Amino acid sequence: MDEENVQKPKIVIVEDNFALADIYKTRLDIIGYNCMVAHDGMAALELIEREKPDLVLLDLMVPRIAGDEILRRMRASDWGKDIRVFIISNLNEKDAPEGLRELGIEGYAVKVGLTDDDIDRLVDNILKPTDQEEDVSLEG
Fold first, then answer.
1. Using the 8-state DSSP alphabet, how is residue 50 labeled?
2. Residue 137: phi, psi to the nearest 5?
3. Domain presence at residue 140
4. Which residue has the higher pLDDT, 38 or 132?
5. 86 assigned to some structural domain
6. Taking the alpha carbons of 8, 24, 54, 65 in that order, is the dihedral positive or negative?
7. What is the dihedral angle through the alpha carbons of 72, 81, 38, 120, rounded to the nearest 10 degrees?
8. Residue pLDDT, tens place only, 71-121
9. Is 35 among the domain residues?
10. If we measure between CA atoms, which residue out of 30, 13, 20, 22 comes closest to residue 86?
11. Can you give the pTM of this predicted structure?
12. Of 120, 135, 138, 129, residue with least CA distance to 57
């Protein structure tokens, strides 16, 4: 009963691929997170501002407002300047818009190189208590 009263960490998944977003959400919900999905940049900004999640999993190539612009707008606002963001994109980081790391991200991963278990692990590594932190880099 006490477990039900514990607030689950909130995650906003910004992903325009409906099937992929559903996989992320389902898996992360199962392991104890409260996930919400936005399929375009406009919806993402509204959802992030309203929910103030613990983490945003951000795709860069989404319709209406691109992921890098979502991040810039978050960082320019009072409500979004401290929200943790992890970028998951089909773009290699060297091909991504410049300055993402300077805007403060937890990390960057290319979707094609990620397994579902990798997603679970990287979220756990970011959101678990600080005394249990591990390296969230997925590059070997």
1. H
2. -70, 135
3. no
4. 38
5. yes
6. negative
7. 110
8. 999 999 999 999 999 999 999 988 999 899 999 999 999 998 899 899 999
9. yes
10. 13
11. 0.88
12. 120
Domains identified in the chain, total number = 1
Q: What is the CATH number of the domain that holds 73?
A: 3.40.50.2300
DSSP state of 70: H
Question: What are 11's strand-pairing partners?
Answer: 35, 55
Task: Say whether pLDDT at 16 is over 60.
Answer: yes
Looking at residue 131, its pLDDT comes to 52
Rg of the chain's alpha carbons, rounded to an integer?
Answer: 14
* Range name among 7-16, 100-109, 120-129, 130-139 with the lowest pLDDT average: 130-139
Q: Whole domain around residue 110: which residue ranges?
A: 2-127
pLDDT of 61 > 70? The answer is: yes
How is residue 120 annotated by DSSP?
A: H
3-state helix, strand, coil in the chain (%, to 5): 45, 15, 40
Give 42: exposed, middle or buried? Use CB within 10 Å, 0-12, 13-18, 19+.
middle
Q: Is the Cα dihedral 11, 119, 100, 19 positive or negative?
A: negative
Q: Are 134 and 107 in contact (CB under 8 A)?
A: no
